[in-house]
Amino acid sequence: MLKVEEALDIIRRESKDKCPTREAVIDASPLAAHKSDNPPHGYITSTDTFAVENVPNYRASIKDGYAVVSADGPGSYPVVSVSVMGKGSHLSHLKPGEITRVTTGAPVPEGADAVVQVEDTELVRANDAGDEVEVRILTQVKPGDDIRPVGSDTKTGEIVLPKGTLIKSAEMGLLVSQGIRKIPVNEKPRVAILSTGDELVTLNVAELQYGQVRDCNSYTLSYLLKEDGFTVSFFKHVPDSFEDTLAALQEATMNADIILSTGGVSMGETDHIKSALAHLGGVIHFGRVFMKPGKPTTFATLPKDTLYFGLPGNPVSTMVTYKLFVLPALKTWQGDFSVPETIAVSLPESRNLDPRPEYIRAVYNKGVTGNQCSSRLLSMRDANILLQLPARSDGVSQLLEGTPIKAMVIGKI
């Protein structure tokens, strides 16, 4: 059996360089952007994106205060103009012996080379309307003090989003700050879910018959995909027959780039997935992984660069193997080569080790989520980390409470 790391190496190798690119468009209105079907948010940039404008495109005051000629030094000066954001085009050249009232972010007039914050001034005289006429400067400033030069935030021609950047909220703001509405991005993979087994029934069935099981895995996978920014393009329930399995796989390959199936990959006589994959010319890269839960996990490639994941039928195994194997493939496929976050933790309770490396569901800083049976979906409720326990060895059969171990982050902590 392959180790988890070996399986991941194969998955990443087969998932690279698959995605096409497209041009995403930012809507002119933030409200419309939430309803757009072609936004760049959540996608990976396919090329370097360069600044086309200086930010700021004028010398801007960092603070509320007064624009001055620094060589004038402390003293009382007439206030000859006022500069506020969006209304600085009228400003005349500031001469020595004059000052201009400026607000934070407002243009600094030509001739001024520093700003004195309002706290370092005092009013000498105002007119009947309350407008400042004369203000005393109390401190000496240097050229450049409290002024943002043109292009100090972003210079024209510099890379603002390198190729391979995941576009999140800050990146959206950067694009808008540059007036960029269109940007090339990597497409996301289309994902198919095949739920296999005669025993499975949908929510439409009011009362279970003996031996029936509700199909929670397809819902769980669908919402895992949604949480990670991916959508399901095809779904089908597949009865336990070779013909149905083969037909479902053929249909899925026409509608998806990555196929996920649950169940049908163990050693049972009604598990037809592997035979159907072979019939379609698929290459099965592995069919068992040295881990718990998730031992029967299968990974294959099909013609037309389609990736296939056969996940175990137990719901916890489905979720754990999605996080360990499917999510890295989805990300790699679209050009995101980041690795899952792991953190150092202390084992919250003593545990006997399994012959296989084990992934224990837990809540960070609280403890293990009860019985770890792979059919018990309650063990995933609130779980935000997977404790990574090593396999039992001749020298070590148990880890004691407080032992330092690694944990994979699978939720907000």
Give a structural overview.
- There is one protein chain.
- This protein is an alpha+beta fold.
- The longest helix has 19 residues.
- Strand 24 and strand 25 form a beta hairpin.
- The strands form 8 sheets. The chain has a 6-stranded mixed β-sheet with strand order 8-5-7-6-10-9, with no helix packed on it. It has a 6-stranded mixed β-sheet with strand order 17-14-18-21-20-19, sandwiched between helices. Strands 22-28-26-24-25 form a 5-stranded antiparallel β-sheet, with no helix packed on it.
- It has 7 helices and 28 strands.
What fraction, in percent, of the residue positions are helical? Answer: 10-25%
Provide the spatial order of strands within the biggest beta sheet: 8-5-7-6-10-9
Largest sheet: 6 strands, mixed
Question: Looking at the structure, what is the overall shape?
Answer: elongated
Low-pLDDT segments: none
Q: How many whole angstroms does the radius of gyration measure?
A: 31 Å
Name the beta content range. 25-35%
On the 0-100 scale, what is the average pLDDT?
93
Structural class: alpha+beta
Short description:
Helix content is 19%, strand content 29%. It has 413 residues and is α+β, with helices and mostly antiparallel strands. Strands 8-5-7-6-10-9 form a six-stranded mixed beta sheet, with no helix packed on it. Strands 17-14-18-21-20-19 form a six-stranded mixed beta sheet, with helices on both faces. A five-stranded antiparallel beta sheet has the order 22-28-26-24-25, with no helix packed on it.
Keywords:
elongated; 6-stranded mixed β-sheet; alpha+beta; 413 residues
